[in-house]
Design brief:
By secondary structure, this protein is an alpha+beta fold. It is built from three helices and eight strands; from the N terminus they run E-H-E-H-E-E-E-H-E-E-E. It starts with a strand and ends in a 7-residue tail after the last strand.
Length: 143
């Protein structure tokens, strides 16, 4: 089923922020917590233990089926601290939404198959809003 969620970015504080929200909303995480160290490194790339322990992705249901998702990013600033994530039912719907939202905006990552098992892309629309479009492979409708 299609879904919309809010994606929050923090600089090393995602886990503590989500622990705070978890206590307030009295819910449990949706799925595992993925850390940067769980992602394969490119040849020659190094990361510190502190960087490896940062959050790559986590999710927490709050109210009415809404899900907060979060990650640690190197720099948090106005314009990259919150994104709207669209989770349509099909690749075709994802492509149509992505194309319409990116018109006159900036493509950050074209839609493509990702290592975490999704068809994903990100963009900033012409009004400066950051959008993530994600279709989990397990949830894709067959055309």
């Amino acid at each position: 089923m299609a879904n919309v969620c809010t994606y929050l970015n923090f600089n090393g504080r995602t886990e503590s922020a989500f622990e705070f929200y978890k206590a307030i909303f009295k819910t449990e995480y949706a799925g595992p917590i993925h850390r940067i160290k769980d992602i394969a490194q490119a040849p020659g790339q190094t990361r510190s233990e502190e960087q490896g322990n940062r959050i790559a992705h986590m999710a927490l249901p709050i109210l009415g089926g809404h899900i907060l998702r979060g990650t640690d990013v190197p720099e948090v600033r106005m314009g990259n601290n919150v994104s709207i994530m669209l989770e349509p039912d099909s690749r075709e719907e994802a492509q149509a939404l992505y194309d319409a939202l990116s018109e006159g905006g900036e493509v950050l990552m074209p839609l493509a198959d990702m290592f975490w098992g999704a068809y994903f892309g990100e963009l900033i629309d012409r009004f400066g809003v950051k959008w993530l479009v994600n279709v989990d492979h397990d949830n894709q409708e067959v055309a």
